[in-house]
TrEMBL record:
The lineage of its organism: Bacteria, Pseudomonadati, Pseudomonadota, Alphaproteobacteria, Hyphomicrobiales. Gene3D superfamilies: Rhomboid-like. The chain crosses the membrane at residues 12-32, 101-125, 137-155, 161-182, 213-234, 240-259. GO terms for molecular function: peptidase activity. This is Rhomboid family intramembrane serine protease. Coiled coil: none annotated.
Length: 271
């Protein structure tokens, strides 16, 4: 037997199959859309995106005339702006299309958009899948996407531009991971230190006293503020739906303890 056994090559990206599938779907959908005609792609985006004005008319009791009037403020009566034309097209039917609260997460505006979301999905979705399994991962992601869509629509009821992207779902995964990613390491029964996804969930009391958690949350909120209100020149090719990020983040923060299969860290250490 050779004293120097051959080295086993470790994969560069050791991702769970569930995450690899999600990345393939997101990137694949965007790649296929690039092969379609502009008209077909436009139809796909309009049919699958969250458009708050469409929900406001279908579910909120808002009249189409109200939206058209708000878009025409300061515009001559005989003028139809591109935004007004889009509103007329989007609101031509009375369909609310509630399923778009999920389908918008599969569409992206550019390669930069889908790749950035894919990187964050891989980073924060991986520990969630390893801790909770594929089923609970999908439940959490869907809930965060839906809550992100609802918060965005509520805060922008007359918006007729389509909102797309997986950022709301990814924000929910980030919030969920914050419950355990920064928890103190302990010894596993196998005689090794626990991985982050194996650690007991922090309590709220522990989280507010954990400097790493507070720094992470501070950076996350600061980044959303910068890209939403400051928008550094040339860094992004479209406006950021920060409302969807906040909605998804809060959903992940509130829902994860209900889905977590591991117990929370004891609030006190018994003697």
């Amino acid at each position: 037997m050779s004293p120097n056994p051959p080295r086993v090559r470790e994969p560069i990206l050791n991702l769970p199959a569930t995450i690899s599938l999600c990345l393939a779907v997101l990137i694949g959908i965007h790649g296929v859309r690039l092969l379609l005609s502009d008209e077909t792609d436009f139809t796909i985006v309009i049919d699958g995106a969250v458009i708050p004005a469409r929900w406001a008319v279908a579910f909120g009791g808002v009249q189409v005339e109200e939206i058209m009037r708000s878009l025409g403020e300061g515009v001559p009566d005989d003028t139809v702006t591109p935004m007004m034309a889009l509103a007329q097209y989007v609101l031509a039917s009375d369909e609310g299309r509630p399923w778009t609260a999920l389908t918008y997460a599969f569409l992206h505006g550019s390669w930069a958009h889908v790749l950035i979301n894919s990187v964050w999905l891989a980073a924060f979705g991986t520990p969630i899948v390893r801790r909770c399994g594929a089923g609970r991962f999908f439940v959490l992601s869907a809930a965060a996407a839906v809550c992100g869509a609802i918060v965005y629509a509520v805060m922008n009821p007359f918006q007729v531009l389509p909102m797309i992207g997986a950022s709301g779902a990814v924000s929910g995964l980030m919030a969920a991971a914050s419950w355990f990613m920064f928890a103190p390491a302990s010894w596993h029964r196998e005689g090794r230190l626990t991985q982050p996804h194996e650690r007991p969930r922090e309590t709220l009391g522990h989280m507010v006293r954990n400097r790493q958690v507070l720094i992470f949350l501070g950076i996350w909120f600061a980044a959303n503020y910068i890209f939403a209100f400051v928008q550094p020149l040339g860094m992004m090719d479209a406006s950021i739906a920060w409302e969807a990020h906040i909605g998804g983040f809060l959903a992940g923060l509130l829902i994860f303890p209900l889905l977590d299969p591991l117990p929370a860290r004891p609030s006190r250490i018994s003697a």
